[in-house]
Automatic annotation (TrEMBL):
This is (2Fe-2S) ferredoxin domain-containing protein. InterPro entries: Thioredoxin-like_sf. CDD domains: TRX_Fd_family. Pfam families: 2Fe-2S_thioredx. It comes from Arachnia rubra.
């Protein structure tokens, strides 16, 4: 049985080289669920081309966000549905934290069946939001505290009843201009705001919720800057 270690989040994908080295040392391969690096579908295609049959899929995270773990199974079921029974896919729903010293046993993994798990009527249209905030998680932004800004922003928008209702928060790779890290971009306003720290979030949320309610944006948020 071949094991595929799957980086779950964008932040996890940034450590793809370490994960790939660890997987190779243990006789497995590595993939990413999102972000840069070889995608899970690409790695499954490659394994199928070599005649591999049983494959054990395990999510890996270096943080606390376990939410994307179920998507490993969803993507794998969609792959089976679209490619046919070229592989026998086993999925361990409990992800690993950090680089493994040994590959986990597949005794508790479940066999996946083909299913179009990537399509849902609820996902046919964009969400009915008025603003989309892109939180940059590029190298400089991550180093300067983008994770704390992202967490504070999502909490504040949720408390205001605006998260995914009138404001959609999306994590991205580099958005530029990097000297303003940590950076957020407000669309469709074409506003590049930064540096935005957790202390700046209350004013930013007032701006966002005021704008979506048809009011003038409140003052106090970081001044917009255009990319260089």
């Amino acid at each position: 049985m071949r094991t595929v270690l799957v980086a779950l989040t964008l932040a996890d994908a940034s450590r793809w080289p370490e994960l790939a080295e660890s997987a190779s040392r243990l006789g497995g391969v590595a993939a990413v669920l999102q972000g840069e690096g070889p995608g899970l579908v690409d790695q499954l295609d490659a394994l199928a081309a070599t005649g591999t049959k049983p494959v054990h899929l395990i999510g890996v995270t270096f943080g606390d966000d376990l939410g994307p773990a179920s998507w490993v199974g969803r993507v794998a079921r969609w792959w089976l549905d679209s490619r046919g029974p070229q592989l026998e896919l086993w999925f361990s729903s409990r992800p690993l934290r950090g680089l493994p010293e040994v590959l986990p046993d597949a005794g508790r993994a479940r066999l996946l069946a083909p299913r179009d798990s990537m399509t849902n009527p609820d996902w046919e249209e964009p969400p009915p939001v008025a603003r989309q905030v892109l939180v940059c998680r590029g190298v400089r932004c991550n180093a300067k505290g983008a994770a704390a800004t992202q967490d504070a922003l999502k909490r504040a928008l949720a408390e205001a009843g605006a998260l995914d209702e009138s404001v959609l928060v999306t994590v991205t790779a580099c958005c530029y201009p990097c000297n303003r890290a940590p950076l957020v971009v407000v669309q469709p306003d074409m506003q590049w705001l930064g540096p935005v720290t957790p202390d700046d979030v209350p004013a930013l949320v007032r701006q966002l919720t005021g704008a979506t309610n048809g009011q003038e944006p409140a003052g106090g948020a970081p001044e917009p800057t255009q990319p260089a």
